[in-house]
Amino acid sequence: MKKSNKILIVLVLCIIFIGATIPFTLINFSGTQPPQPNYVRIYVNSTIYDQLYSEITQYKQDVINQGYTADIIAWSNNSIYDLKQDLINSYSQGLVGAVLIGQLPIAQFDYLGSIFACDFFFMDLDGFWFDANPPIPLNDGILDYHDNSTGDLYPEIWIGRINPECLTITNYTQAYKDYFNRNHMPIELAHFPALIKHYYISMIRGLDGGVSI
Q1: What whole-number distance in Å separates Cα of residue 81 and Cα of residue 84?
Q2: 130 close to 143: Cβ distance less than 8 angstroms
Q3: DSSP reduced 3-state for 108
Q4: Domains of the chain
Q5: 162 with 103: CB under 8 angstroms?
Q6: CA angle, 42 then 164 then 160, to 5°
Q7: CA-CA distance, 156 to 126, in Å (whole number)?
Q8: CA 72, CA 70: separation in Å to the nearest integer?
Q9: Is 71 left (phi over 0), alpha (psi -120 to 50) or beta?
Q10: pLDDT tens digits for 148-172?
Q11: How many CB atoms lie within 10 A of CB 34?
């Protein structure tokens, strides 16, 4: 066998070995959407769904009243890749964003040794992300590589989270209920100037103990 052929075979084997040992999850993305996308997915941790059913149902209606279509999904999967694939699968239905309620998967990213929560992973549906942290193949579960793949480096959707469980309170269920109840309360625009006036009166009184308007 020629020396050049031997070198070629060795290179191919090396590429196959590296490709087999670098851990990443393939996520398929199709970038087509309806002409006027307005779909919002509301993911709720399945362990709190029953306790908050009426509040979350009202929240869904509040979203619909703002001109969107919406679905509620009781989610119990801890994989960031499965959650992202579900978002990708919904993109063709006109998905514009998602609300994550409760303790749901959080992607982490390592940038030059600084590790932080990275919801951009869920927003950038057509980018390529994986954990290439050595030693291979013992990855640490933290993403550290991101490029545009066949798409771009920009978000396709928005992500919001509602999760008081990171706060130092004891009754999380009540915190959720209070939040959704406040969110549902209408703001009477006719009374808005009075609200602003009241706010500044309260603020100034807090500063100097009295005020005259």
Answers
A1: 5
A2: yes
A3: strand
A4: 3-162 (3.40.50.10390)
A5: no
A6: 35
A7: 8
A8: 7
A9: beta
A10: 877 788 899 999 999 999 888 889 9
A11: 11
Question: For the chain, first and last CA: distance in Å?
Answer: 96
- Taking only Cα atoms into account, the Rg of the chain, rounded to an integer number of angstroms, comes to 24
Residue type at 77 in one-letter notation: N
Phi, psi of 97 (to 5 degrees): -175, 170
Which tens digits make up the pLDDT trace of 72-123?
A: 999 999 999 999 999 999 999 999 999 999 999 999 998 888 899 999 999 9
Other Cβ atoms less than 10 A from the Cβ of 39: the count is 20
pTM exceeding 0.90: no
Q: How many residues does the chain have?
A: 213
Alpha-carbon dihedral sign for residues 68, 36, 158, 95? positive
- Residue identified by tokens 């499965």 is 82
Residue closest to 95 by CA, chosen among 148, 33, 153, 47: 33
